[in-house]
Predict the structure.
Amino acid sequence: MNSDPSRGPTVHQMQETFGETMKQAMSAMSSAGLPQAGMPDMGGGTLPQLQFDPAKLLEVQQSYLKEVTALWNSGLQAGTPDGLTGDKRFAADAWHHNPIAQFSASSYLLNARTLMGLAEAVQGDEKTKARVRFAVEQAMAAAAPSNFLALNADAQKKAIDSKGESIAQGLTNLLHDMKQGHVSMTDESVFEIGKNVATTEGAVVFENEFFQLIEYKPLTAKVHERPFLMVPPCINKYYILDLQPENSLIRYAVAQGNRTFVVSWRNPDESMAEKTWDDYIEHAAIKAIEVTQEIAGAKTINALGFCVGGTILATALAVLAARGEKPVASATFLTSLLDFSDTGILDIFIDEQSVQFREKQMGQGGLLKGQDLASTFSFLRPNDLVWNYVVGNYLKGETPPPFDLLYWNSDSTNLPGPFYAWYLRNTYFENKLSKPGALTVCGQKIDLGKVDMPVYIYGSREDHIVPVGGAYASTQVLPGKKRFVMGASGHIAGVINPPAKKKRSYWTSGGPVNAKLPASQAEWLKTAKEHPGSWWTDWADWLKGHAGKEIAAPKVFGSRKYKAIEPAPGRYVKAKA
């Protein structure tokens, strides 16, 4: 380290720099709609000034001064320790061999750590602190020097090596993405629904304005007598469950001898702008259950709900129970919220003001555009799902490699405004679904305590959309025999984990079923045992116990009343938002 005082910062310079960092922090907080001192709220009042823990603030300041002194003393010397190791944004050699770029990246990372330290020093309730952290994370992700051609040494080197071709291709990519309305995460031209994704053989056997019901061709000579219905989330397209044959949960269920049906949601257009939560329960979930029963000639069926599909399924089952009907013998809930006490990072977006805004905007009609929702989820992981592609596509002129999951992720869906506004207030904000009698849906008082069939509940350990504790909370509101299983990884990768891949692991605790489980997932985890591989095999064994005897597999799709309309995957899934 160069210890020449002339090279190092003065105390005054360091204090000025720290003051600028503080200003950046406040700006970051306000950029996400967080209050600053004296900022009026929408009601005309004054929001409170953010307060900081003095001890933590002093610790942040002392750490910053120490690190900035070391950084400035190292100067513009390529090859000096730079703290860039481990951050893939600055992993290329060009960042380490260019002293100015190295210093720029190191300074950025120091400022980012300082801003996050300030966020942690904020005093207030957990929601306020979470909003501050989120705002700072967004600001820091956007401000990275890697996002700007003038500062990105790796992109500059590529431009020189390619004689400017990378810049020309980057502009072409930018114009393409502007035309399609979203940043490309994969080479979308490689994929076609029904050709190389969503290819499991089947036929549409029913449709209305909300959904198509797909029945799949048996892969076994015999099937279980009790049919199996899958309800995917309506905020995405169903084929996350049927990407490729080797990772298709749908194909896996069929191969286990289940006569399998899947709801393929319609991508709403203006004709559905006034549809409500009640409409989706009555005319979609309940209707799908009824049609599945009729086609199979079965008194009861087994059902699965994934994410929002699980919330819809549970609501439908509660409505049916209130009517004295119990057509579902067992239910599986994958990364689903029934008790919305723990909603993770999404909680920062939900308060009375934001809910009222959506109610006024679209509560009586309108559409929530699919790209708006997709952008929200992408910015939950901004470096991985936003800026990574901005840099690759536009600064480096690269075409992202083909990846079926990211193709599906980019294939967004709209939502009817009244449906969405109701969902926000009654689940995420007021958490009424888990409270007996607090909600009336389809003319019935809802009580999940009456949804008493055996259930299989799955949560993903690193899920940032449905926290594993939130998924586990369903065990406390559903009264029947239940099995809770935790899988490794996140919201999608944890679910789509076929056994053949021999990847990841899952955890179980206790016997095959439990009437009562500990109050919290943390307590459950203390006695949980880890198993290598996929949770699919555990689930298949559990489902087999509720599927009934084996009968000859049907030779045709549908029935006399419900004839095949068109081959799977059908028209609805192909409609673009």
Observations:
- The chain has 18 helices and 19 strands.
- Residues 379 and 522 are 28 Å apart (CA to CA).
